[in-house]
Amino acid sequence: MTTCSLGLPFMFWKARREQEAVPLKTVVVTVCSRDKNKGGQQQSVSAQRLAWVVDPRSRAQPEIERLVPDVIRERLFRPAYVRYAGPIYREISPLLQSLQESSDLEFLIASGYYGIMDCREPIWNYELDLKKTSQVIDIWNNVRLGALLKKYLDEDLGGHQRLFVLTSDYRLMLSGGVADGLTVRPIDWRASSAQEQMQFYGQALAHLTSSRLIYEPLANIPSQQTRMGVRFQLTPV
């Protein structure tokens, strides 16, 4: 009896310690890139990963193509993380290449043409600037993309903490979906250009992932510093 009574608390203690050692699951939602790598394959090599996006995308894309007839530059497929070539993706490319199906990190990308996608989804080479084509934001709002994203995050990824790394135009495009999470904010620093802002975002994400802080409780992480020397903190959206 003594052995059993001593063993049970030890088992609970051991199980609790093991549970605490398990990395937290995190979902990152960030922006696409104006700069893109060309080329690709004629056929998509993998299926659509986010089934809930199919319907709003099928309604939004024809309107976008009428609005911007030359939006598609090449009808060739490359995974999104390979297609995008901007500052964010130059910083975090090694991370995205190593993502596996069992990863504790989900990485979603907001796109003016595709809406929302998994970073591994094969996509065409397209060109669409939300700042120049603000009507695209209205198109995605009309198909309730933000509300559907929120439903997906709440129901399918409910156990994941959320980190939103988005510019203001993409926040508007995902209206209603950017909630219950954190965002990256610089401390006493302002970007002098859009390129510099994207570089800051990329370095902040690279720092959080390479140090594995991305798997810690994000709300408790103290201020950090990027490679370019910019201090940042994670604050509620």
Briefly say what this structure is.
With 237 residues, the protein is of the alpha/beta class. The chain has eight helices and nine strands.
Features of the shown structure:
single chain, 237 residues, alpha/beta, 7-stranded mixed sheet, two-stranded antiparallel sheet, 9 strands, globular, disordered N terminus
Whole-Å distance between the termini? 53 Å
Q: Overall pLDDT, averaged?
A: 89
Task: Give the strand order, joined by hyphens, for the main sheet.
Answer: 4-3-1-6-7-9-8
Envelope shape: globular
What profile does the largest beta sheet have? 7 strands, mixed
Overall structural class, as computed from helix and strand content, comes to: alpha/beta
Measured on Cα atoms, how large is the radius of gyration? Answer: 20 Å
Fraction of residues in helix: 25-40%
Please report the total strand number as a whole number: 9
Strand content: 15-25%
Helix count equals 8
Low-confidence stretches: 1-6, 8-20
- SSE string: HEHEHHEEEHHEHEHEE
